Amino acid sequence: MLTKYLTTLSVIAALLFTAVGCGSSMVIQDVDYSQPIESVLTPDADQVIHDQRFAIKFSIAKVLEQEGIQSADEVRLIRNRAGYYFLTAKGFNNVYVFKPGENELKKKEIIEISSEGIGDPAFNQRDRYIELVDRATGQTYNLDQTGRR
Amino acid sequence: MNVMNIYLKTYTLLFAILFIVASSTVFAQQSDYQIQQEFRTELAELSERVELAVSTEELEILEQEIASLRDRYAEHSNIINAAIFPETFERMVSRVEENRAASADRAAVIEQLNERVDELTAEMEVFRNRITQMSADAEDLQDQIERSAASESRQAALIRQYRQNLEQRDTFVSNFLEELLMRYQTMDRSTQEELADAAERLEDNPLDLIKSIVAEYISVADQSSGLEAPDYIGMRAQHGYFSDVWNRIGDRLVTTFDPEREVQAKQEVEDLLAAWLASVDNRLWDSITTAFNQSNIQLGPFTSPETFNTALNNYVDGAYELSLESNNDEDYTTYRNFRDFWNNTVKASWGEALTEGKILSQSEIAAIDIKVSNWGEAAQPTSNLMFILFLVSIAVIIGLVVLLITKKN
């Protein structure tokens, strides 16, 4: 009788553990975060940009500090398939790659493009990478979250 | 050397143009964001031009430009769709195309209306000029008639000419009214409203023209001299026709050409029509009395269609009674005189105008016809020959009887 009772209890416990275990490890694969077209955003007086279409808002003060400039008229932002944000602006030397987290964007990579500053940058979403175009020079750069491809 | 320079300059220029075109194309196509921005800008600009376009030519050019925009951006439609979601490239371009088509339809209608307004203006001008000319001729003839009182034959000739002038005017005005009837009687509401918009630009619209025509008619009726009953009966017929046309299209005309003061405008024309009738009637009844008197027919007094009809009926009824009582040659002569005047003048010459002018209706004329016919039978003097023959026969029979009795005895 006791054996039977213990066996039933063990089966129930095993089932519960399996269910809980399954829940915690559920991962959806092959998510496409890609933003089809770049956002061209104008920072406000507090250097905050707000992309209403793709629903993101953050300060670029640290980026400007990194670039050593006071302000930027327009900032270009795009998100790649993997979910990383790419940010640059006219006159920037680099493209900044951020990984989104809870209430944060964490620097993943700073990709140096030109020590002279990018003349007229634009991001294009491509199948497997982000294309950076410097329309001032006509040069293009293929980027991902790890750097130049 | 100079030729070389020219060649060099030309090549440099061509190269520069090619470079600019090529580089701008390459750069423009390198930014997806820019492509969709340019698409939006160009489409918005075209859309605005469609809104502002007023001519069909302009809208035809826009049709080509929209088609060109569609062709140029079709290959980028995916990028554009992504950028303008939930809108789509197809929907946005189609919307502008539809707006353009609707504007083109509107512009075509407006152009058509403009043409109609121009035509109408030209027609009005021709009409007014013609009427003015006729009025001037009529006034001139009127003056001449008054001046030529000394010469009866000349005056008669002038009166004939004046009468012709009035007849021409009546024909001309009737044609104009016919045209108005055709144009406005069957006009649907939307055309009427469109024409009303366009009519604001008309300096001389049909409504004004009608008012001036009626005013002219009043003036003619008031000032005419030397005219006789048929002329005034004709004027009343013209008034009847005019009133009939007005009753049929008056409402449409005021709605179209004076929509802001419809009631007032209608009343103005109706007042003028009433004044015209009063002016005609002022001369008409006297002239008819004179015409009957000249034929030795003494009708009782009359001053309206009703009293004229009563006077005629009273005359015929009275004469009929008299003929029944006396049945003499004089009655028969009176009857023949009236019958001839009634048939040859009143019915044959005036008949149509009398009914059109609402002086006598067909049924009233027919009723008098019957009475005249009865009068004819009553007025016909009966022969005494039969009575005499009867008396002779009786006398002969009595004679024979007397003779037979005498012989027997």
Structure notes:
The complex is a heterodimer of chains A (149) and B (409). Chain A is of the alpha+beta class. Chain A has one domain. Helices cover 20% and strands 38% of the residues of chain A. In chain A, the strands form three sheets. Chain A has a five-stranded antiparallel beta sheet with strand order 1-4-5-6-7, with no helix packed on it. Chain A has a four-stranded antiparallel beta sheet with strand order 8-9-10-11, with no helix packed on it. In chain A, strands 2-3 form a two-stranded antiparallel ribbon. In chain A, strand 10 and strand 11 form a beta hairpin. The longest helix of chain A has 23 residues. The N and C termini of chain A lie far apart (68 Å). In chain B, helix 2 runs antiparallel to helix 3. Chain B has three domains: 103 residues, no CATH class; 172 residues; 81 residues. With 409 residues, chain B is mainly α. At the A-B interface, strand 8 of A face helix 1, helix 2 and helix 4 of B.
